[in-house]
Amino acid sequence: MPTKLLVFSALCSLAFAKSMDCRMKVHESVSAPPQGYVSKGPAPADTELNLRIALAQSDPDGLIDALYNVSTPGSLAYGEHLSKEDVEKFAAPTAQTSDAVKAWLNHAGVNATPISAAGDWLSIALPVNQANKLFDADFAIYTHSETGKQTIRTMKYSIPTELKDHIDLVHPMVAFPSPVSLRPVVSTSSDLERRATKHPANCSTSEVTPACVESLYDIPPIKVTQRHNQLAVSGFENEFANQADLQTFLEQFQPDIKGATFTLQTIDNGTNPQNGSEAGFEANSDIQYAISISHGVPTTFISAGPNNTDGDLDGHLDMALFLLGESKLPQVLTTSYGFDESDLPRKLSHKLCHVYAQLGARGMSLLFGSGDGGVSGLQSQTCNATFVPTSPSGCPFVTSVGATQLVSSHGGETAAPFSSGGFSDFFFRPKYQADAVKSYLSSIGSTNSGLFNASGRAYPDVSAIGTNLSIIIDGRLKILDGTSFSSPIFAGMIALINDALLRAGKRQLGFLNPFLYKNPRAFHDITTGSNPGCNTTGFPALKGWDAVTGLGTPNFKALKEAALKAARVPHPHPIETECTMQDVLSV
User: Fold this and answer.
1) Alpha-carbon distance 69 to 453, whole Å?
2) pLDDT for 440-485, tens place per residue?
3) First-to-last CA distance in the chain?
4) Which of 248, 285, 281, 246 is nearest to 263 (CA)?
5) How far apart are CA 248 and CA 268, in angstroms?
6) What residues are labeled active site?
7) How remote is the C-alpha of 420 from its chain's centroid?
8) Which of 126, 280, 293, 563 could form a disulfide with 130 if both were Cys (CB 3.0 to 4.6 A apart)?
9) Quick one: pLDDT band at residue 193, thresholds 50, 70, 90?
10) What are the helix and strand counts (H, E) for the chain?
11) CA distance 517 to 68
């Protein structure tokens, strides 16, 4: 292993980073800014940039193998989730990597601060002129023409050739903020004029309540007992969850648990003001359905503030790294925000996905709404030549949740036309869904040929009702649509199942997908509807898995029984297992 001095001697003098004597190699580049962004000229030389360096990890493949070992029913390690320390051993950079990168930065006069528990993410702050020299870059100001959002980015950056195996990426450099976020669509609204009933007959095609959800998915009255069973709801974009609205919602729609509340956790100087006028459609939707469907499983609202330093990820990476640093994790996290996959560079998508894999290995179920734009992405938009996958749904280590709608008052469901679904351009199809997706592709034949990556990770994985949901905003009843409802509804059911598992002396489900795809009969198969977009009818919902509703909507009792059957009584000591073949991340 080379010493710091030997490593350092191989590097060029950073004071002359743009000279011909410096062996620099382009690490990431884009040909042009995303649609809508326009360059306004060079960034001021003294503007300070907050950047992050992702160091190469010591054993990322071993972490993925371990994740599948503890998440696949039938494995000897199923349910034996890794400890915080075990995960950090996989994620930590080698001493050679740490020494080489620190020597480079020290020579440039740049201080680096570790911001992840494993030490694989470093934070640096430096002015634009120094960053231009250090990375052989040209930072400029870019403004989004429609939203006015302004950011400083470069079209390419370089690192010393000797560091190409030690640095995975520097961020944010070539990644631009997404101009949109994943939010519900308001369909109708009205004043709160009546009290709802918990009777299943409350289901209607014009208004869906928690009682309707319980009727649809066969969720019986349950009293949760495991206080260490935790459910978390993420909040971004200045979306605030209102306690008074939650109480009004529970009194009207779930009186058996009225008085249930949530605790607040903040990151990046996040807040959660309780003025009724500041109540968020998104935050209230997530909180009210996560708590009501989970029957009051202890819930935390994690509010990410505006002072994030993860660039275009808007706090998603900050939240994941914060959770990795916690000694105890919530068993379930639901998120109703996301991106179009094309908005993120491939390297960054892979790094964020691997952070989610680390959380999954520790026993956390991560659920994301698939998006509300059909095959056109996060939200309905004009497409270019191909369909638009969404992120993080394309990550193989999260569970993507699509949406359905009612077709009758008797509980029949069809695919919601806005339910985003399709195939990732960044990630290969994981083995747990290979057979199901192969069958679907065979069924659709040449439909949409050339418009999607037929070898990519397919999503959504599952679905739940996502249209005409009743919520309370500032004391008033609103009716909304979106996969923003579907994800917390499914998360609430997983939290209930975890309660039963823990009560039986077993482990929580953790990373869900291998278990879900082994139990397709625990779902109501949705076989009608499609998700149009990009001047097409999109993907059709068919028998079995499909790219609109995934495996379908849950039969709670069947899913709970399958979970209890698959779970093992925890082994008293860590056991050695043979690793499974890992999924290849990059297409």
Assistant:
1) 28
2) 999 999 999 999 999 999 999 999 999 999 999 999 999 999 999 9
3) 32
4) 246
5) 30
6) 282, 286, 484
7) 14
8) 126
9) low
10) 14, 26
11) 13
CB 522 within 8 A of CB 218: no
Tokens of 551: 């495996």
Six-digit token pair at 111? 């201080």
Q: pLDDT of 388-398, one tens digit each?
A: 999 999 999 99
Residue 162 in this model has a pLDDT that exceeds 50: yes
* Strand ranges of the sheet holding 185-189, from the earlier edge strand across to the other edge: 185-189, 476-481, 469-473
Q: Which residues are annotated as a binding site for Ca(2+)?
A: 525-526, 544, 546
336 contacts 289 by C-beta, under 8 angstroms: no
Cis peptide before 392, with omega less than 30 degrees from 0? yes
Rounded average pLDDT over 513-530:
98
Number of Cβ within 10 Å of residue 101's Cβ equals: 22
Tell me the residue length of the chain.
Answer: 587
Q: Which residues are annotated as a binding site?
A: 525-526, 544, 546
- pLDDT for 10 beyond 60: no
Condensed to tens digits (0 to 9), the pLDDT of residues 218-247 reads 999 989 999 999 999 999 989 999 999 999
CA angle 334, 545, 488 (to 5 degrees): 15
Please, are residues 371 and 182 in contact by the beta-carbon 8 Å criterion?
yes
Domains and CATH numbers, the chain: 4-57+92-171 (no CATH), 224-566 (3.40.50.200)
